[in-house]
Structure formats: C-alpha cells, structure tokens
Amino acid sequence: MGQPRYTVGLVVHPVKPVLDSVRIISRFVHRHGGALLVREDDAPRVGPDVEAVAADAFVDRLDAVVSLGGDGTMLGAMRLVVGRSTPVLGVNYGDVGFLVEVPPEGLETALNRLVAGDYTLEPHSCFQVLNGGEECTAFNDVVIAASEPLQSATVDLFVNGARHGYYRGDAVIACTPTGSTAYNYAAGGPVISPSAPSITLTPVAPMSGINRSVVLGGSDAVEFRNPSDRVSLRFMADGTPVGLLRPGVGLSVRLIDDAVNVVRFEPTLHEQRQRVKLSLLDLPLRPDQLLDLVPPQLRERAEQLRAERIEAERLRGGPWSDGPPPAS
Ligand SMILES: NC(=O)c1ccc[n+]([C@@H]2O[C@H](COP(=O)([O-])OP(=O)(O)OC[C@H]3O[C@@H](n4cnc5c(N)ncnc54)[C@H](O)[C@@H]3O)[C@@H](O)[C@H]2O)c1
Ligand SMILES: Nc1ncnc2c1ncn2[C@@H]1O[C@H](COP(=O)(O)OP(=O)(O)OP(=O)(O)O)[C@@H](O)[C@H]1O
C-alpha cells in the first residue's frame, strides 16, 4: 500500500455520540486516499475504521485535526497542535459551541470545501505559562485561586517586572482575546477583539486590592506571585487544574501570537452567531426554558424552516446553516 495523500486526526468528546460524524469523515478521507487516526485512548469511541496510534506519535503524523465535541474538546484539540501549522476544524456537539463553527449536519459540505481549498485559517494566540521549570499552554485563560474551594486568594501582580498592586478575592483571570468571552465575560470583564493582541486581567468577586479589569498589551510580561509564606494557590489553564503556586513563587504569563490555525468557512456568519450566543448568555432563562415561551405552532414552523434550509443547502453544496439566529 502506498503512502496516504494526507493524514487527519480525530479528537472526540468523552461521552457524546459522535459516531455518525466519524463515519462521514472516515468515508470521505478514505475516498480521497487519506488516512484517519485517533489516539489509543479515544479508539473505543470511534469504531474500527479509524487507525489507533500512541498519543505521542499522533500529533507528528497529522496534516489536519477534526474536533468532534464542544468548546472544551476544541480547546483540547488546539492545545495538541500548538506551535504547528496543522489546521483545526471544529464540529459542534456542544451546548454553546463558541469556538466551533460547523454543525454535524454541515460536515459533508465542510469536508468538500476543505479539499477544494475553499476556507480561511483563523490564527489564535495562546498563553505560554511558566511555573518554575514547568510550562503549559492556554488558549482561553489562566485562573489563579485559593487551593481550597471557597477560600479567598491573595495574589501579587507584576507587569514587566514592576509591582502593580495585588488581588484579593475568589480568583484572578488572565485571558487571551479568544478567552475574553468565556470566564472573563462571566466575571464582568470586557469582550476583546481577536484583532487586538492583548492580555486582560479580571478579578473574580474582589474583596480588596485591584477590583476591575485591566487590558495590557500583547507583549507585556505578566507575573502573578504568591505573597504568602504558608499557603499555596492553585492555577488552571482553560478550566483544567494544572498545579500549585507555592508560597513566594511566581507564575509568568506571555502571549504567543498565531499559535494555532482554526479552519473557518464563513467567518462573518460565525462572528454574527457568536454575538447572538453571547447575548443569550445574559438572559435569565436556559435555552429550553426560553423555548417554553414560544407558542407551539411557531416552534413547529421554525423547525420546518430549519429542515428546509439545511436540505436546500445540502443539495446546493453551499454554505450550511445551523438555523437562523434566534430573534433578540
Ligand atoms: N463562571 C464561568 O463562566 C466559568 C467558570 C470556570 C471555567 N469557565 C470557562 O470554561 C473554559 C473551559 O471550557 P470547557 O468547555 O472545557 O469547560 P466547561 O464545560 O465547564 O464549560 C464552560 C463554558 O464556557 C464556554 N466556553 C469555553 N470557551 C469559550 C470561549 N472562548 N468563549 C465563550 N464561551 C466559551 C463553554 O462552551 C461552556 O459553556 C475555561 O477556559 C473558562 O473560561 C467559565
Ligand atoms: N477528548 C477529551 N478527553 C478528555 N476530556 C475531554 C475531551 N473533550 C472534552 N473533554 C472535557 O469534557 C468537558 C465537556 O466538553 P465540551 O466542552 O467539549 O462539551 P460541552 O460541555 O457539551 O460543550 P460546550 O462547552 O460547547 O457547552 C470539558 O470539561 C472538556 O475539557
């Protein structure tokens, strides 16, 4: 057997049923003379058509990655290929799906557009986080909190080596422009355009010290220092616990430009949907509770229109849609 023309890697959500999409990708990749890989740990969730490889060999072989899941899965896929040019395509199996553009019903169209070169690459910056000799990456945010839940944390801030005050409260968030719509937004921080390289610092429930958001430049060197001589703090990268910040120790955060390329088909439409999703987050009702307010006949009509639109787009082979944005 000859060399595959290209190799695609799958990163899958731990529990969501993604097999239909795996089958579509598998058929497509094999028809085009490519190879499809998954990490050994994910193999039981994707069926026998996908070659399982050891985690450390996986990334080296990839020409592209497809994430089947929500924002968390997408962040994990992005972290895998950080610093490489490997494009990442996100298929949304999540509830919010802020970072992922393609709904499962748009997957075939997306793959066709991908091989036709009909897409753009959206670069995302990330944080390089250094804690002593240890390093990690975050695409959304780094959060420093007390090591015990519900206790307050005291954190000193240094920017470019100069002391800039301290935080005392539940936590302090440092976010990239991508992460500005996640925890930072929930904590009252500003939304930052991806075209404005910057580091935003936002306190969570501040008791004293710095009590509002600060937006720093993309090349500023940020250091959080644990001023205590007794207690450790803990820190998280993209919502995942990473380690402890020992008494007296500093955590350095630097923004790295263009660390990963995300595949986009309709960047303007995607941005428009992000804005709608963001405004929905501010409503006091969950989406299912909002639906209860819509009269049944309107709901049925909306479902019918959505199905007709998806079918028309499938036949046209043009840009898909996951339905019209909800009325604001
Ligand atoms: N109070 C909060 O809002 C809160 C608390 C902890 C963590 N988080 C966020 O969760 C992120 C990790 O995401 P996850 O999906 O693994 O965890 P998760 O499953 O706990 O999801 C948190 C929510 O944040 C959304 N989200 C993730 N990245 C986003 C982004 N860039 N813009 C807008 N929304 C986004 C997700 O879709 C999800 O609804 C962390 O980076 C952090 O920003 C938020
Ligand atoms: N391949 C994976 N392996 C291990 N954990 C994962 C993987 N994919 C996702 N997770 C974790 O599972 C959780 C939920 O994943 P994800 O955010 O993708 O789905 P969701 O919560 O349903 O979607 P959304 O974030 O859009 O609401 C996250 O905390 C994420 O870090």
From TrEMBL:
It is found in: Cytoplasm. Keywords: ATP-binding, Cytoplasm, Kinase, NAD, NADP, Nucleotide-binding, Transferase. Pfam families: NAD_kinase, NAD_kinase_C. It catalyses: NAD(+) + ATP = ADP + NADP(+) + H(+). Its EC number is 2.7.1.23. GO terms for biological process: NAD+ metabolic process; NADP+ biosynthetic process. NAD(+) binds at residues 71-72, 140-141, 168, 170, 205. The active site is at 71 (proton acceptor). One of its GO terms (cellular component) is cytoplasm. Belongs to the NAD kinase family. HAMAP family: NAD_kinase. This is NAD kinase. It comes from Micromonospora craterilacus. The lineage of its organism: Bacteria, Bacillati, Actinomycetota, Actinomycetes, Micromonosporales.
